[in-house]
Inverse folding.
DNA sequence: AATGAATGAGAATTCATTCAT
DNA sequence: CATGAATGAATTCTCATTCAT
């Protein structure tokens, strides 16, 4: 009786599953402990595999980190684009955006990008990736929406680019704080945050 | 030929100066690079001494970190107490507090405390220190001030403990983001931040 | 649906072909990169099979290396024996031997034996194999031929055992140098080399 | 009582001694086992120090290897230059050169250069270094000497560049073989080797 | 027979800490 | 008090080998 080797599709599926499993594990660990504080053995343990296998799927810690950052950037772009399809007034959309950003499920991505921006030992490629999608990109993206809201009287008067950058910074700061589950910090109510924008 | 040995007081003074020098250096480096990312040799270099000498003054990296955290906690307590001596209405004092917190000179202390709260590799003792002075301590401390402001109509209605914790979290988040000098983030105008509190 | 299983003879033939294929690949790679520098995956790639399959045919890297060395020893014995069937005078035969040794096709075998003699990480068994067929074996084998040549006045006077060992060492050295294709070294003309033997 | 730290000169001396000690140890081990076969721990053991200290003096295995190759190249240049100061005829000088090259003390250097030329895992810089001093350099250097000898009838007629390259290759091959102390190979008598050159 | 996923021992390198001077 | 040489534990990564399919 001959046992055929796994066919291409099966192998491909195993590979994909393992890769996803590793990526999920790595995202958690990197987000929590930073790139230096993360040991490959921690990721392997979290993923439930041997550290040797990690290197079967990712050439190095750097490559793994880069892959994660790339994924995070794509996610955040998608979130930004989805704004347009929402119903309601400008301020409704901004509220939805705020909720989306503060959603805990996105927190690891946030931390990852934050670390790629600010930590030591970040691979050059990851650094370039996050620079591409700088704060300015987001501000430009949101400017039409905020302008519309300001004209409708929903948003406080004043320089909108500054306001948007400030608001996003506040949200980012909160996400960075909230990564730790037993955080001493408190995530504000959406309405309280929106006062910064509306002035009311 | 050896000069007459220094007397006790002189030695003591040298010791204290050296210690301060090391503490200042360590604060900078730890704040910027975190406890894991900071190598003893970096601190020695920043302080302009040999790494061997570091160990004459601090038994270990841990002890040095603990000392810094202790100092940071004392500083932040002092800042909090100084609030009472300020002139003006409640909102004036809150504005002053905000300015104080966001002042760049305090940023390293903020980062340090943040790291002591959230990073790996933090000595147990440091972790206990920051827990002692939890968010709750600060909230309790500020509650009378905010209550006064709310009664005067300067502060939005609603649960004040939540509001204070939220506001402090926002400020903390901003400080954490702003440690990196070339930060992509933007520090908001004080007035914009205060809208969260005043509701106007 | 599975085809009828191959009969024993067919299986045997496949086995032998595969083995030869692997041996040829391994010889090339080991000769070029040495036993430590050769990775099993390189041999698999050169043979066009998976690295897993390698272990169906050879229990380990060691066993594979031993097999190669054994083959090389047999080859070199055969070359030595074929000397006797050659036509011509003693010096003609020595010239033919020289050509045979310096032939590039034999170079991988030479390197292999050289490595078995001199490298680290060589299995004990391979080491014993090459010791069996030591320089002395070859010298003894060639002594009658050289003696005949010396008596005929074709070969310089002096101790023949030393001369033979020296000459073989020179040839060996040249083969070892010339393994690398883009070698900076130059393979001498046969006639120039023969001067060492003839003294003319 | 104050113990002054070591002064600069003492430190410098310790450093130099240690470096020499490491270089001598590394030369031996690299020559015998090649760059891949050499473990840093072996060098440390041979030098009688911890592996950590190795990295105090040389940033990496690569750097250490490069340093050795550089030294070997310098040595070989010096040997070549010293030829001119020798007394006697051309053939006397060639004999002296041969003795110099075959001297066992130079063997490790020879192996090192050979390995830098032919092994895997050789740092790019080392490879460039040895390419600079190619066979051609040596041939050009020796050409005047051999021409003089040929005109004096001490050297066989024929293309001298080929002869020189061939002769050097033979010597190199012998050195490469003879690195292993218990070598099965035999180093020929100088006079026998010189027959290749003189034709007599 | 054939494949490649999976494991783990081993090697290079870093860095906190100790210690002779 | 001050220096930097010295050590070794911990970490990243490689590769021979095993094994399910």
């Amino acid at each position: 009786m001959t046992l055929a080797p796994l066919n291409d599709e099966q192998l491909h599926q195993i590979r994909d599953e393992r890769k996803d499993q590793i990526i999920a594990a790595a995202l958690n660990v990197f987000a929590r402990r930073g790139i230096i504080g993360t040991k490959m053995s921690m990721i392997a343990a979290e993923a439930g595999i041997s550290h040797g296998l990690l290197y079967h799927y990712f050439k190095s810690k750097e490559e793994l980190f880069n892959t994660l950052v790339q994924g995070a950037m794509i996610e955040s772009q998608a979130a930004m684009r989805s704004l347009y399809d929402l119903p309601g007034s400008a301020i409704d959309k901004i509220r939805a955006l705020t909720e989306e950003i503060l959603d805990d499920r996105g927190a690891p991505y946030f931390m990852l990008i934050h670390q790629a921006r600010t930590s030591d030992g970040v691979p050059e490629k990851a650094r370039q990736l996050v620079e591409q999608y700088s704060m300015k990109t987001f501000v430009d993206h949101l400017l039409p929406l905020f302008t519309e809201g300001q004209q409708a009287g929903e948003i406080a008067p004043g320089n909108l680019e500054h306001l948007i950058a400030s608001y996003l910074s506040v949200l980012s700061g909160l996400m960075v704080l909230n990564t730790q589950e037993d955080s001493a910090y408190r995530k504000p109510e959406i309405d309280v945050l929106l006062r910064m924008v509306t002035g009311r």
In short: Chain C has a mean pLDDT of 90. The domain at 62-198 of chain C is CATH 1.10.357.10 (Tetracycline Repressor; domain 2). Chains C and B do not touch (no CB pair under 8 Å).
